[in-house]
Design goal:
The complex is a heterodimer of chains A (426) and B (671). In chain A, 41% of the residues lie in helices and 9% in strands. Chain A is built from 17 helices and ten strands. In chain A, the strands form three sheets. Chain A has a six-stranded parallel beta sheet with strand order 3-4-5-6-7-8. In chain A, strands 1-2 form a two-stranded antiparallel sheet. In chain A, strands 9-10 form a two-stranded parallel ribbon. Chain A starts with a helix and ends with a helix. Chain B is built from 28 helices and 17 strands. Chain B has an eight-stranded parallel barrel with strand order 8-9-10-13-14-15-16-17, surrounded by four helices. In chain B, strand 6 (191-195) and strand 7 form a beta hairpin. The longest helix of chain B has 23 residues, at 119-141. Chain B is elongated. Chain B starts with a helix and ends with a helix. Classes of the chains: A alpha/beta (426), B alpha/beta (671). The interface between A and B is large, with 98 and 85 residues.
């Protein structure tokens, strides 16, 4: 099988992993004669017609797998075509693509072959070869096999910028139904190994960057997974409601100190197992979860505030911040000229960066209506909830009216939803 | 500002760069020239050439240049940063807006930049974001193409790019850092930048025809692009927002967008309608049934990267490989150092006496000081470095040990007293009889003087002596002293049996029977266990007579597991000849080295039993244990931690089997 054919099969196999981020690592530049750098801010080198960023060369080392997870296109009982890269194939592709500036680096995952340790060792070998043999300073994200030996996970973290273990589904019951070979406890334990190594590397204040020259001499990058740990949950493959998904995400942020939890709308796959729903991927739901995720991480919301016991799922028609505001009308309107930061952060249509701008400008001037658009505030969502010197909402909006007015527009504007899911302004 | 000035105005012609503007702006500001009277007219490239201005490298309009400002002209650093970015914008109004804001910032509104709602500041902010974005998109969308002149060893990489703003100089350092080991050029209509692995060089803009048109890798890149796309998630709006159409002509992959988008709905429909294809089998070697991974390479990895010692790494590597190989392939030789699961062997709490079997089964290995066992990382914790610490550790894991040192040299009371002191109450020693007690030759140099002196003169210098040449009373004295030295163990209740392992030439005969009777007499009350090494002892009807004789003498028969097919091979016959004890001794099954004398001993025993082989022994052992007072299970596959690993595994299996036999966990606990 030639490399083109392998590439097509193993890129196909990799596309269900949502993350392609190359961000969060520390600054690192290529040493003399080397290539590759990271500056903490990811770069998307292309976008496919699904609107998703192509930042890393996202591949599976092989799509053979001895596991049989129902949601996965690569499960052993699937009839999908199979291929296997050698570690050298992947090293070559990464370097050649990188030299032409197609990519920021590599995101490598794999089906499980032989056993977890063997698979993990193969993944690590690619990262190690890139770093030591080729002095590669670009971004490397390795998928971690949860039940691989801790020694192997520790070694992977020395070469990779980011490690991730996919939790896949929020509850063990969901895993039992669709991924009988996966064990949530084991996944958490492996995440714990990574978390502790990261913490230890930070506490030791191990050198904050490694130069390619050091790597060439065989000394591994001393810090451990400088871009931290991430995970992915599949949305819509089981009946787990958003409340459960968000609580799981919150627990992972808190307990495992994850950098990101990615949500991946369950997408129909070829050769789908009969236990799976045949649906279009719930993209809107995925975006609402991302928005809720931003609210938890940057806006001071608790997972429990975002859904209610009566309605455990996020409103698909409006964003979760607006939905929360409508449920808590008593807390509005908020005076932009007087409210504190926490209050400002809870206003629909006022993003984190807008809040910073408001706080800065307020030191010198009082805010008026004409200023609002220059603060990059979304007026149609914000106006019913705010007071400025020459504006106050006459009365709080009729809930249904506002909801339907904004909902209609957002429904049509998938693009707007996507954007806010990416840039976190809502 | 006088009306006249406002009308007359002032035209400033300057080099169209941040530095050019800055020089003029500073001069105007010092002269107090009001922004409304200035008309900014930058020279274009051609005019600059005529004016004799060179195109010099000014990467990122470095802020370092601005550290030193004239005393009378303090400008906030933030403004200079903002201005250097805005200068790259293509808007013709940028120079005037910059000067206006500069005028205000230096004229009393020092906080002006904070007021992002101010129309001027807002305009600059908008331009700055556009420049940042253009620079970011340049980092993202430049596509190098490899070109190679005949003389080049390594290719040069050339890109054609059309930046949305004039960001070439600002963005060039990024490429220099990232691709420092390559020779590259980025050609644009505004400016070109070149990197020769050492420094950046800027030249005038060119047209697209100067750039290479293809690269072999682009086909592969398009393959990747097409296949990483998920047609079920088509979202063209989101794609266009981040990758505006103006860039598409620069991107080799963009030519696929049209077809991929058009075909997406059809592909999804077809995919959902498709019937299931039959699964492709996972190839045997990926299932773990084929040739194993290269453990040596893997061990090097673990050693170099995972902070393990070399030995630990080898053990780990082999354990990983063998975890599968031993159960699937019945490959019994995991290699130089390992056992299959050292971690489990060390960390699992294992019952020392097997409570489920009434404490009657004890398991151990032959010798706790074998050099391959005491190697660091094999069995003992690193802090167990003295013989005492090793014995204590050993006794915390297993409840029985066979002492082989006594075969080579007579034990002393002191030594034996230490053994008794350093082990828990339920620990038991089986002691191998001295070579001379079982008709073997012994090294003369290791014999005590009272024996050597009893030898005929001509034999005193011989390397080895055999008991046949010794007077009977000397042999009796040897037995007496041997057993006397064991007294501390006997008193402590820790003496199991004295193991009489006879040589391969010790065959069934009247004479041999006499030897056995003599042995019985000399042992007195001490329990003896007899291991034969000639198969005739269990051949046909002789087997019954052998076992009957041992039963009559009250000697325990040693049940043997060893390689089969040789004269010295004992069949694994279950014979119980003493009501007090049955002994099972497992030597490994490494047939190819079994009878080779000149191999190192640890090679002969380099054999790890697999689960199934061990399990086969559990039923007979449990049977014996339920009918007799005790069973000793001794592993003699003394190679690294093979014996200890198998011993611990056997403990686990017997515990399971015993529980099953006893009718479940509750019955077991009731003991």
């Amino acid at each position: 099988m030639d490399i083109d054919e392998k590439l097509s099969i193993l890129a196909d196999a990799a596309k269900y992993d949502a993350s392609c981020a190359s961000s969060g690592s520390r600054g690192r530049r290529a040493g003399p004669g080397g290539i590759g750098s990271t500056d903490g801010i990811g770069i998307c080198h292309s976008y496919t017609p699904d609107g998703r960023c192509v930042s890393l060369l996202k591949l599976l080392l092989t799509n053979y797998c001895i596991y049989d997870c129902a949601y996965c296109i690569n499960r052993r009982s699937s009839g999908v075509r199979r291929a296997r890269f050698t570690p050298d194939d992947v090293v070559w592709l990464t370097l050649e693509f990188y030299r032409r500036n197609y990519i920021e680096g590599l995101f490598l995952s794999s089906g499980i072959i032989r056993d977890s340790d063997y698979t993990m060792e193969q993944l690590t070998a690619v990262a190690r070869t890139l770093r030591t043999t080729h002095g590669f300073g670009g971004y490397i994200h390795l998928k971690t096999i949860p039940n691989a030996a801790p020694e192997l996970i520790r070694e992977a973290g020395k070469w990779a910028d980011r490690l991730s273990i996919n939790v896949e589904l929020p509850r063990q019951a969901d895993l039992d139904a669709l991924a009988p070979d996966k064990d949530l406890t084991q996944i958490r334990r492996a995440m714990g190994v990574i978390r502790d190594e990261i913490a230890e590397a930070r506490a030791d204040s191990r050198p904050s960057a490694f130069t390619v020259r050091q790597v060439r001499q065989g000394a591994p990058q001393s810090a451990f997974a400088p871009a931290g740990q991430a995970t992915q949950m599949i949305v819509g493959a089981t009946d787990a409601p958003d409340a459960v998904i968000l609580a799981t995400a919150a627990a992972l942020y808190r307990g495992q100190k994850l950098r990101r939890v990615y949500f991946s709308a369950f997408s129909p796959i070829p050769d789908a197992a009969s236990t799976l729903p045949v649906i279009a991927p719930p993209l809107v739901r995925e975006h609402r979860l991302y928005q809720a995720d931003w609210l938890m991480r940057f806006y001071g919301f608790d997972a429990l505030e975002l859904t209610t016991s009566d309605v455990p799922n996020l409103d698909l028609a409006i964003d979760p911040k607006l939905a929360w505001a409508l449920r808590n009308r008593g807390r509005f309107p908020v005076d932009l000229n007087g409210a504190d930061k926490a209050e400002l952060l809870r206003i629909p249509g006022v993003g984190v960066r807008s809040v910073e701008r408001i706080l800065t400008v307020r030191r010198w001037r009082r805010l008026r209506m004409e200023d609002l658009s220059r603060l990059r505030i979304s007026l149609d969502r914000a106006l019913p909830f705010i007071v400025v010197d020459d504006h106050s909402p006459r009365s709080l909006p009729d809930v249904l009216d506002l909801r339907s007015r904004i909902a209609d527009r957002s429904q049509l504007d998938m693009f707007a939803i996507t954007r806010s899911a990416y840039n976190g302004e809502l | 500002v006088t009306a006249a000035e406002r009308i007359v105005g002032r035209t400033v012609r300057f080099e169209s760069t941040f530095a050019g503007w800055r020089a003029e702006a500073r001069r105007l500001l010092l002269e107090g020239v009001h922004p409304e009277t200035v008309s900014w007219e930058p020279l274009d490239d051609a005019q600059q050439a005529i004016a004799g201005l060179e195109l010099v490298a000014r990467p990122t309009a470095s802020t370092r240049q601005h550290d030193v400002e004239p005393e009378d002209l303090r400008v906030p650093r933030a403004f200079l940063r903002l201005a250097s970015a805005v200068a790259c914008h293509r808007s013709p109004t940028r120079w005037a807006t910059l000067y206006r804001v500069l005028w205000r910032v230096t004229g009393g509104e020092s906080h002006l930049l904070d007021v992002v709602t101010d129309p001027d500041v807002h305009a600059l902010g908008t331009m700055e974001r556009a420049v940042r974005r253009a620079s970011h998109k340049m980092k993202a969308f430049v596509r190098f193409r490899a070109t190679r002149a005949a003389s080049d060893v390594e290719p040069a990489y050339v890109a054609w790019f059309e930046p949305a703003q004039r960001v070439v100089e600002r963005t060039a350092p990024f490429f220099a850092e990232r691709f420092s080991g390559m020779r590259w050029s980025i050609l644009t209509p505004d400016r070109c930048v070149h990197w020769d692995r050492e420094s950046l060089r800027f030249t005038a803009g060119v047209s697209r025809s100067s750039a290479p048109t293809d690269d072999d890798l682009e086909a592969l890149w398009r393959t990747y692009y097409a296949h990483i796309f998920n047609p079920a998630r088509l979202n063209l709006e989101a794609m266009r927002a981040e990758m505006p159409k103006q860039y598409w002509t620069l991107l080799p992959e963009a030519r696929l967008i049209h077809d991929l988008s058009r075909d997406a709905p059809r592909r999804v429909t077809r995919m959902l309608a498709e019937t299931l294809r039959p699964p492709q089998a996972v190839p045997a070697e990926l299932e773990g049934r084929g040739p194993s991974a290269d453990p040596a390479a893997f061990a090097r990895t673990l050693h170099a990267g995972a902070g393990l010692t070399r030995r630990e790494a080898e053990i780990k590597a082999l354990a990983i490989r063998d975890g599968r190989a031993t159960t699937v392939d019945r490959v019994h030789d995991p290699g130089a150092f390992a056992a299959r699961d050292r971690e489990r062997a060390i960390t699992t709490e294992r019952p020392r006496g097997l409570a489920t079997l009434g404490g009657r089964v004890q398991i151990g290995v032959a010798g706790w000081t074998d050099p391959s066992l005491t190697e660091p990382g094999v069995f003992y914790p690193n802090d167990a470095t003295t013989p005492e610490e090793r014995l204590r550790y050993y006794a915390s894991r297993l409840s029985l040990v066979e002492v082989d040192a006594t075969y080579y040299a007579l034990p002393t009371r002191t030594m034996v007293a230490h053994w008794a002191q350093r082990t828990p109450a339920d620990f038991v020693f089986d002691i191998k009889a001295h070579a001379l007690m079982t008709g073997h030759g012994a090294e003369t140099s290791r014999l005590p003087p009272w024996i050597v002196n009893a030898l005929p003169e001509r034999l005193r210098k011989a390397a080895r002596v055999f008991p046949g040449v010794l007077p009977a009373e000397i042999v009796d004295e040897l037995w007496r002293r041997f057993l006397d030295a064991l007294d501390p163990l006997t008193k402590a209740g820790k003496l199991g049996a004295v193991l009489l392992q006879f040589p391969p030439w010790f065959k069934p005969s009247r004479e041999s029977a006499t030897t056995l009777r003599d042995a019985r007499r000399r042992l007195g009350d001490t329990l003896g266990a007899v291991e034969f090494r000639h198969r005739d002892w269990l051949a046909g009807r002789i087997a019954d007579r052998t076992l009957a004789l041992l039963t009559e003498l009250g000697l325990a028969y040693v049940i043997v597991d060893a390689p089969q097919g040789m004269v010295s091979s004992m069949p694994p016959t279950i014979g119980v000849t003493s009501p007090r004890l049955a002994v099972v001794r497992l030597h490994g099954r490494r047939a190819e080295t079994w009878e080779r004398r000149n191999d190192i001993v640890s090679e002969r025993y380099r054999y790890l039993y697999d689960d199934e082989q061990l399990r086969a022994w559990t039923l007979p052992i449990i049977d014996i244990a339920t009918q007799h007072q005790g069973v000793h299970v001794l592993f003699n596959n003394n190679h690294a931690n093979y014996a200890t690993t198998n011993a611990l595994e056997m403990g686990e299996l017997l515990e399971e089997g015993g529980l099953a036999r006893a009718g479940g966990p509750d019955a077991g606990r009731a003991e």
